[in-house]
């Protein structure tokens, strides 16, 4: 059930402020239903801000523009409403909450979503998070452990659109295969027909995660704008060879020639 | 000792419901879940039943008539009638109200006993004197539910509570309070604990009164005696709540742990915990408060304190006051929770963080506080 445009997510001229300072300066982005896009760019370019804004976190104030999800303007909706429409996020550094256990959150999901307790138990086992179930959520966990604990929660809610902020950061190589396979599972809608899948947006610096989940398209963010978009592998290759500095040059040239949309 | 008349026949249904809200269960199969029941409405003892050999529960006046030793050894022996205005008022009653609970030597009782004390008349002043005696080698869990009838707004609850715990004994007191908005609450409590015995004091205030002062004092006189206080308070607009307690560590190798968790949705809240070290001992006070939409005049003041007379008294305290962090709330909302559900989950975590072995009753009350606090925030 996608919108008439076939896009699950559309962002139009999005301007966002945090603490009175504008961090996003007119983002335009469209992600078709069933596609997974990668988001790249140097630190501080606004990748995290864009994801947090799509999820609806209140510190990120939209001053102009629109976020359309599945044909519906969600710019004014609460985090809860967006989550219930099927938007989800794995934050890079999720908060710890004293006394709140991972088990409590999973129990809530079982009570309110369609997944059964048995299925959650299987997910927990597969993601190897049993031993964190009764610890305070995200407390004292390594990078890889946090990602696994977060991914279990997302897998349990089956979101239509999943965002991930550097899913490979702080994950050692042994853990990466498991994290990668969980990410992959998240987007698979029908294991017999891998072409049909769920949509998402993944922030990656290294591109390691793209070995596990094929991205349809990549976007490079520079200073609160999307500089260019294209084939993820070609773009990663260019960045690996020439760094983001080349992108900056490209963008400045583009600006001069009035070519950047 | 068990009598044939059921408490269900004596207590009206709406009153039974009011009592159930504070952990006092009046029901046909009561004997399956409780070892004894005492219910006092205003000044009238409605029922006194025990279901266990070795456990005696009596109205205090009757106990004083029956047992001379009660007056000689226990009555007004830990607290003096001239301590303050509250004790003086209780002492001035011609016929004292309250309960006497006596657990005979060697009796270990797993099912809780319960005492329901409620005010059914507007403006009623309930003046109580309660005495608990646990002989050596005994165990008792007493749930005390204090509350007002649904329509009652004001009243006074003045109480003197004296408890004596012998050697190798454990007394667990779980006090659940839920008051009308203008009730003034003044319990004065003291407990003495013998060799290798334990005293656990749980205090939960759900529906806060206008003004509560409850700082029970425990004397750990025995070798290896311990005390554990767990105080959980929900404060709301217009209330003054001053709770916590004192523990005097007089016995060698005694130990105490005082934990105070307060959620302030308005009103003034004082969290206390005072330790006096008179022997080689270990003790810790931990006060933590959370401000949740406290309004302009709402505050939490945490006052942990230590006084040491002994070089080997190892005592420490910690205190913190904070708020519910929006990023925590929104993190949980991003899993599909409503804002109030997320806040409830966080408050619930805050209230029972680092507390092990909560009783089922206490657990249920904390759940309730968390739910109420969550709805408070939504406005």
What does this structure look like?
The complex is a heterodimer of chains A (261) and B (379). Chain A contains 7 helices and 12 strands. With 261 residues, chain A is α/β, with parallel strands linked by helices. Chain A has one domain: Rossmann fold (3-Layer(aba) Sandwich), CATH 3.40.50. The two termini of chain A are 29 Å apart. Mean pLDDT of chain A is 89; it is low at 256-261. Chain B has 379 residues and is of the alpha/beta class. Among the domains of chain B are: 1-166, no CATH class; 325-379, no CATH class. Chain B has helices at 7-10, 13-20, 30-33, 60-66, 68-74, 85-91, 326-333, 339-352, 360-378, and strands spanning 36-41, 44-50, 55-59, 99-103, 113-119, 125-134, 139-148, 154-165, 170-178, 182-193, 198-207, 211-214, 217-220, 226-236, 240-243, 246-249, 254-265, 268-277, 281-291, 299-308, 313-323. Chain B has a 10-stranded mixed β-sheet with strand order 2-1-5-7-9-11-14-17-19-21, covered by helices on one side. A 6-stranded parallel beta barrel of chain B has the order 10-12-15-18-16-13. In chain B, helix 4 (60-66) crosses helix 5, helix 7 packs across helix 8 (339-352) and helix 8 packs antiparallel against helix 9. At the A-B interface, helix 2, strand 7 and helix 3 of A face helix 7 and helix 8 of B.
